[in-house]
Write a structure and sequence with these properties.
Blueprint lengths: L3 E4 L16 H10 L4 E4 L5 H11 L5 E3 L4 E3 L6 E4 L4 H11 L5 E4 L6 E2 L11 E8 H11 L5 E7 L5 E8 L4 H12 L6 E5 L5 H4 L4 E5 L4 H6 L2 E3 L6 H12 L5
């Protein structure tokens, strides 16, 4: 029996846009099941952009934010765990970002700017470069791969035909924060359902007992899934949660 479900937000729980909202059906199903199973979010968003969605969903279990670099209590917003990149890693990331005319967001920034205008602290948890063309995404990811002990993921952007790049410490992906989260919840990895749509959800799939990719998700993620759900626009998450936790009819 599954004891926890971990949900990506953009493209999974909500439409992939800045003002995306969960459907009434998703909210109602989570309300019904959260007394029998832990329901947590695992999002690339910081708490500033994710908090209102998490509250609308009525989540009370700890949630993963900022791409896996932080776990927070969704009620108090207390930080339960976090992991940052060091100064040397940050400097190398910013050197690469400065070669391009893309907005950079750091940590909980809600406003982006070109890398040359960004002021970094000694430690930063996550750097976002967005929105990036598909061609430049491949080039930037290749350059970032030369930096030791960082992880960089290609994310489906809010801007059509573009991608966002999320950069964290290699020990601060959604997989690493999920390991900590499961310890906090007292749940074994085989008892977890993970639902996502983008490549930064691949680390979740490395641990989860049951892996669900949205039909609108990346081909890389769908190739790893036990089930491909209807798209977010078809309320695919509601379908999965209903079948799995209310009807018990979902199978691989």
């Amino acid at each position: 029996m599954y004891k926890a479900v971990i949900l990506d937000l953009d493209g999974t729980t909500i439409p992939n846009k800045k003002d995306g909202r969960p459907s009434p059906r998703v909210i109602e199903i989570i309300k019904k099941i959260k007394n029998q199973v832990f329901v947590s979010a695992a999002t690339g968003r910081g708490i500033g952009l994710a908090g209102h969605i998490i509250k609308e969903l009525g989540l009370t279990a700890p949630c993963i934010v900022n791409g896996g670099t932080r776990i927070i209590d969704p009620i108090t917003e207390k930080i339960l765990w976090e992991k940052s990149m060091d100064k040397a890693q940050i400097e190398k990331v910013m050197e690469i970002a400065e070669e391009y005319q893309y907005n950079v967001f750091i940590g909980d920034d809600t406003e982006g700017s070109l890398a040359k205008y960004k002021i970094t602290k000694k430690d930063e948890r996550i750097i976002y470069i967005e929105p990036v063309t598909e061609e430049d995404t491949k080039i930037i990811l290749q350059k970032l791969s030369s930096i030791p002990d960082i992880s960089a993921h290609k994310i489906i952007s809010w801007t059509l035909g573009h991608f966002d790049i999320h950069i964290t410490h290699s020990e601060a992906t959604k997989r690493h924060s999920m390991e900590v989260l499961l310890e906090l919840l007292g749940v074994h990895k085989d008892e977890v359902v993970a639902v996502g749509d983008s490549n930064n959800d691949l680390p979740l799939f490395e641990l989860a007992g049951y892996k669900v990719a949205m039909a609108n998700g990346s081909e890389e993620l769908k190739a790893k899934a036990d089930l491909i759900a209807p798209s977010v626009d078809e309320d695919g998450l509601a379908y999965v949660l209903e079948k799995l936790f209310l009807e018990g009819k979902l199978s691989k």
